[in-house]
Automatic annotation (TrEMBL):
SUPFAM superfamilies: Acid proteases. It comes from Solanum tuberosum. Transmembrane segments: none annotated. Residues 83-455 form the Peptidase A1 domain. This is Aspartic proteinase nepenthesin-2. Coiled coil: none annotated. One of its GO terms (cellular component) is extracellular region. Belongs to the peptidase A1 family. GO terms for biological process: proteolysis. It holds the Pfam family TAXi_N.
Amino acid sequence: MSSLSFALFFSLLSLLFPFISSSNSTTTTIPLSLFNTKNPSQDFYEKLTHLASISLARANYIKKSQDSPVSTTPLYPQSYGGYSIALSFGTPPQKIPFIMDTGSNFVWFPCTTRYLCSNCTVSSATSQSIPTFIPKSSSSARVLGCLNPKCGWIHSNNPKSRCQDCESPTNCKQVCPPYIILYGSGSTGGLALVDTLDLSNKKVPNFLVGCSLFSSKQPAGIAGLGRGLASLPSQLGVKKFSYCLVSHKFDDTGKSSNLVLDFNASGEKTSDLSYTPLQKNPVVSEKNALSVYYYVSLRKITVGGKKVKIPYKYLTTDSNGNGGSIVDSGTTFTFMNRGVFEPVLDAFVKQVKGIPRSESIEIITGLRPCFNISRQETVSLPELKFHYKGGAEMTLPIANYFSFAGETDVICLTMVTDSAFGPELSTGPSIILGNFQMQNYLVEFDLKNEKFGFKQQMCK
């Protein structure tokens, strides 16, 4: 870390101010919209290629996540295809955009007027500058102390190991050590703060949030909605949250839906939703990251009404935390281990008859299969359905698993797997259900009753 970064860290040490009180409410609704950091006019092949590559990078990180000497958490690589929410922190409130991410458990924002971000392009359709939080403008902001239990949420739970410069175990002026969050294609680092989160109908004091002073390829903050103690739902005491993802159009349409946080959910099911139980997360030494994810019991996949033969080891987790399926709003295209993807691929190839494959587009985009439909008067594609424990079935619209590549002559399956060359990525979840497959679905995470619900509907 550079001396400039350390200087930025310690410039925040004077931010020690009191908190304000909270008020009660049962639900909070937050606008949710597509987040784009690329030029909408960019070549469509390049867009699909980029989405495929960042989905693979995300999957690679999730599947290899394990404990390390520094605090790490999966991050969503910024690009078209992400979904953002705006949250207000501080007194008076400062509104900051965040990428919504169910695959991580930490909330952080770009921070101070001296925030540094390398390789962080922002689409002209959104803004030419990155919005940052200014701690000195908030009367309720405080740097987190080393002995504060919340410091253990992002570092070691053992105060002795993280507070080595303290003169005594009860009287310590040392701040919580700086965090560095690493990702395969990005990173961020800063100091932990506590400040007031100002929701539309609820003020939440003493909220743990990261004040990032530098980032790489990370132009917006992350709002982690995972299962960890530092996540947005956990800190708010949310019993249930839900959202509906507007359709991907690879541009900035300005359309938005809502993220709904329910603080007082009953045991009743939401009308018309299909439910499947949330699985108990695997507990594996040096793989605490697995405890953050939302595991669901995907029992089988059918293509054109025919069951795809998938080895059982991919559909359930073993004692090492390998296998099983998670739902991740931070992944764009659904990832499948090669042992899952290849049978699904074969099922489509066998059932899509009379339409030639476009191997050249498959090489360019990294997606397969791709079919050239330029000479087809009508095109019929097999139905793709996910079957979950408890009988819940997710029948995906074609737009959720096939996309045009380029003009209108080639269509590609929008799911990815690791390279056919080299060993399979066998660790971690075998299936990562991405947000592209969830577009125009209302999805619900019932944390109180440990259920995942969904139904297809137009999101608006």
